[in-house]
Specification:
homodimer, three-stranded antiparallel beta sheet, 7 helices, about 30% strand, binds adenosine-5'-triphosphate, binds magnesium ion
Chain lengths: ~230, ~230
Amino acid sequence: IVQARNLEMTYRNGDVETYALRGVDIEIQKGEMVAVMGPSGCGKTTLLNCLSGIDQATGGEINIEGTNLVDMNDNQKTKYRAENMGFIFQTFNLLPVLTSIENVELPLLVSGTDTKTARNKAQAALEAVGLGEYGHHKPAQLSGGQRQRVTVARSLVNEPYIVWADEPTGALDSETANEVMSLMTNLNKNQGLTILLVTHNREVAELSNRIINMKDGVISSEEIIN
Amino acid sequence: IVQARNLEMTYRNGDVETYALRGVDIEIQKGEMVAVMGPSGCGKTTLLNCLSGIDQATGGEINIEGTNLVDMNDNQKTKYRAENMGFIFQTFNLLPVLTSIENVELPLLVSGTDTKTARNKAQAALEAVGLGEYGHHKPAQLSGGQRQRVTVARSLVNEPYIVWADEPTGALDSETANEVMSLMTNLNKNQGLTILLVTHNREVAELSNRIINMKDGVISSEEIIN
Ligand SMILES: Nc1ncnc2c1ncn2[C@@H]1O[C@H](COP(=O)(O)OP(=O)(O)OP(=O)(O)O)[C@@H](O)[C@H]1O
Ligand SMILES: Nc1ncnc2c1ncn2[C@@H]1O[C@H](COP(=O)(O)OP(=O)(O)OP(=O)(O)O)[C@@H](O)[C@H]1O
Ligand SMILES: [Mg+2]
Ligand SMILES: [Mg+2]
C-alpha cells in the first residue's frame, strides 16, 4: 500500500547541509502495523512526513496505492487527507482557538460530513480516549497527555485507511498509553487499519507486526514481531 | 528548601470548575532529587507550576527558602528566576525566532552575563547534551528530541540551585535519555543541584531519592528510593 525507494531528504540552511534521509527503501502492506525506532535525530519524523506527503523528499520515489496526491492541488490534497488518512504529529498540532471537540470534528467537517453527525462522532472518539468530559476545554486548558489523546482521537475519527503516528504515547503514563494502544491495535486487527508508528517505547513497538530500526538517515535493521 | 501546605488549584471556565490540586503538602530538601509520577491529568504540571511560581495557586501556602518572590515585581521575578532556577517545560517553549545557541544563552544574558562568556557557556551546555553542532539550527530545524535537549541545556546553563523539570526525557530514545539523566544526576550529586522532576518513566524516577505518586489532584503515596 505504501512503497518508497531510495528516499533522500537534504536540508540546506545557508551553506550548511543536513542529510536527514540518505537512501531509505520501505514497503508497508495493507493492514500492517509497522513501528519505526531509532535515536533522537536519526530521521524518523522526516521519513513519516515524506511518506504521508506532508513534506517533499529531495530524492527517490514514493507510491501510495490508489492515490495521485502528486496530481492534486492543495485543496484536493487537504480533502483527500482528511477523508483517508489520520495524523498524529510529534508536536500535537491542535488549533488553540478551538475546543477539543471542535478540533476532533475538523477532519469530518472538511470531508463533508453534516455537523450533527460530526459532533456525535467526535464525542465518541473523545470517549474512546477517556476524555468524554473534556470536549469544551481548549488545548491550553488540558494537560500534555490530554492534548496528545485529543490528537489521537482526531486521527481516528474519520475512520481513515492509514494512520501516520509520530510518538502517539510519548506524553502518557503507562496505563493511559496501554489504553490508547489497545484502541489502535483493535482498529488494526478488526478493521484492517494500516498504521505506521514512530515510537521510543519498546513495549509499544512490540505490539506491531514489524519494527524498523533507523540510524543516521538510513534503515539499520528490521525485526519481525508477529 | 521548598515547602508547600494545603495547595489547591481550581480552574473556572464559565460555570465549570476543574479541581486540579485538592490539598497537596510537599517538602523538598536542599540537594534532593524528587520525582513526581501519576496518570495523565492528575495535576503534576499544575503542582510544578505552582511551586516554581509560574502559576498562582488558588489556595494554600508556598515557601521557597530565601526568596520573597511574592514581594517582587515582574521584572525582578524574571531576573531572579533566570539567575537561580532552571525550567524544563512539558511543551518545550523555545523561542522559534532564535537559534538554539541563542535560546540557551538567554538566561545568562537576562541575569547580566557578558555576551562572550554567555556564548561560551551556551556552547558548552549544548555539547553536554550532544548538540554541539546544532547551535545555529532554529527550533523548526530540529527533531523533537533535539528541541527537548536544547531546553535541558538552557535550564542548566546558569548553574541554578533548583531545576523544575516537566518530563525532561519524554521525547528521547533510551540511550539519549540516559545521557540527559546522567548529566542531571551528576549535577545533583556533585554540585548539590536540587531537582524536582515530573516523569512517566519509571527508570528515570528510580534515579531520584524519593518518588511522589499523585492521583486526582492529591498525593496518593511516597516511596523512598535512596
Ligand atoms: N486552564 C485550565 N482550565 C481548566 N482545566 C485545566 C486547565 N489547565 C489544566 N487543567 C486541568 O487540570 C488537570 C491537571 O492538569 P495537569 O497539566 O497538571 O496534569 P498532568 O498531571 O501534568 O498530566 P500529563 O501527565 O498529561 O501532563 C487536568 O485534568 C487538566 O485538564
Ligand atoms: N528544517 C531543517 N533544517 C535542517 N535540519 C533539519 C531540519 N529539520 C530537521 N532537521 C534535522 O534532520 C535530522 C532528522 O530529524 P527528525 O525530526 O526526522 O529526527 P527524529 O528521528 O524524528 O528525532 P526525534 O526522535 O528526536 O524526534 C535531525 O538531525 C534534525 O536536526
Ligand atoms: Mg521525531
Ligand atoms: Mg503534565
